[in-house]
């Protein structure tokens, strides 16, 4: 009956569908582009565009890379509810990040608090990734949150964006390794010999 | 253990266990489909480790019993098979779990230790 632990079976199915590393690559590259934007102004708009595109790009790459190798699955209502929770939580965090400084005094208040603001920013980033890790049941996102939150805080405190590059490259590379393993482990079936 | 007891729907005896579900490969298929809304053939192959022929054969048996719905469509020129558990399948699996828990729960806890000790 040990094999009939349905929670374990469901979790294994869920995690195997997310072991492709695509999320790590996307988040890592986003931070690398943020680094590029911080050292060269002409790249800044690219970071904003990519931030908007990261969700659709992830969905598309799941469809083009993961589904043809792992198959397609629709998870139950609990997983769907947890996905909605992540979207709501991150939406609330983004709204709070924009509204709270305005309520506290706007740009002047931000400039008057050179330590609290970077620490708060890093904490918000960590919180966002912790939400992803918790609700999407992907524990490695806690580590990504720590790396990214730390990078944002230290970038502001030390006034050097190189940490964004280091954290982004680390996460993107670990995602690329994960993706390579996934592609080797799950080759695309030929599809000529049956009904997939 | 009277044979008549085995016809009783509340009987805990192993003879009442649904053998269609009890077969290990089908058990994995049913358990996987039980925890998701629907999955395609390839996903089930990956999760269960079964070959295409094996999975296909078990899929047909479960479909014939009315435990799963199989929807065959085409994606371009390639066939695409989606499996979903029926209400009857969910009820049968829930009953199977309850019976197995009952049967295994009735075993004395020290059976293995006693066997080792006596050999």
Strand content of chain B: 15-25%
- Please give the CATH class of the domain at 17-98 in chain B: Mainly Alpha
The coarse silhouette of chain A is globular
Average pLDDT figure of chain B: 83
Order of helices and strands of chain A: HHHEHHHHH
The most extensive interface, with participating residues per chain, is: A-B, 24 and 30 residues
Number of strands of chain B: 3
CATH-scheme architecture of the domain at 17-98 in chain B? Orthogonal Bundle
Rg from alpha-carbon coordinates of chain B:
18 Å
How large, in whole angstroms, is the Cα Rg of chain A?
19 Å
Indicate the overall shape of chain B: elongated
**Residue share in helices of chain B?**
40-55%
User: What's the domain count of chain A?
Assistant: 1
Please tally the helical runs of chain B, counting DSSP H or I stretches of 4 or more residues: 6
Helix content of chain A: over 70%
Low-confidence stretches of chain B: 1-7
- How many strands, what sense, and barrel or not for the largest sheet of chain A? none
Q: Residue ranges of chain A: pLDDT <50 for 5 or more in a row?
A: none
From the N-terminal CA to the C-terminal CA of chain A, the straight-line distance is 30 Å
Which features does this protein show?
heterodimer, A: 196 residues, mainly alpha, 8 helices, 79% helix, globular, B: 119 residues, alpha+beta, Arc Repressor Mutant, subunit A, three-stranded antiparallel beta sheet, 6 helices, 3 strands, 18% strand
């Amino acid at each position: 009956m040990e094999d009939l632990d349905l929670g374990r079976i469901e979790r294994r199915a869920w995690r195997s569908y997310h072991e492709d590393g695509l999320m790590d690559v996307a988040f890592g590259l986003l931070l690398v582009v943020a680094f590029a934007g911080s050292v060269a102004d002409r790249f800044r708009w690219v970071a904003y565009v990519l931030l908007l595109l990261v969700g659709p790009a992830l969905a598309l790459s799941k469809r083009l890379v993961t589904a043809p190798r792992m198959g397609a699955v629709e998870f139950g209502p609990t997983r769907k509810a947890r996905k909605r929770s992540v979207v709501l939580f991150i939406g609330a965090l983004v709204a709070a990040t924009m509204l709270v400084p305005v309520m506290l005094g706007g740009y002047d208040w931000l400039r008057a608090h050179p330590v609290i603001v970077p620490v708060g920013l890093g904490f918000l980033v960590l919180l966002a990734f912790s939400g992803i890790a918790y609700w999407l049941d992907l524990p490695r996102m806690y580590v990504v949150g720590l790396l990214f939150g730390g990078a944002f805080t230290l970038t502001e405190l030390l006034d050097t964006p190189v940490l964004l590059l280091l954290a982004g490259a680390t996460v993107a590379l670990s995602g690329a390794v994960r993706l390579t393993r996934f592609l080797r482990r799950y080759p695309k079936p030929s599809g000529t010999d049956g009904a997939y | 253990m009277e044979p008549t007891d085995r016809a009783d729907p509340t009987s805990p005896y192993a003879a009442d266990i649904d053998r269609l579900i009890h077969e290990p490969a089908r058990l994995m298929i049913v358990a996987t489909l039980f925890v998701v809304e629907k999955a395609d053939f390839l996903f089930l192959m990956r999760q269960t480790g079964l070959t295409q022929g094996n999975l296909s054969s078990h899929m047909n048996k479960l479909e014939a019993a009315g435990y799963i719905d199989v929807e065959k469509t085409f994606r371009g020129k390639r066939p695409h098979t989606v499996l979903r558990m029926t209400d009857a399948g969910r009820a049968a699996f829930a009953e199977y779990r309850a019976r197995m828990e009952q049967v295994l729960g009735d075993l004395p806890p020290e059976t293995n230790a006693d066997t080792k000790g006596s050999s």
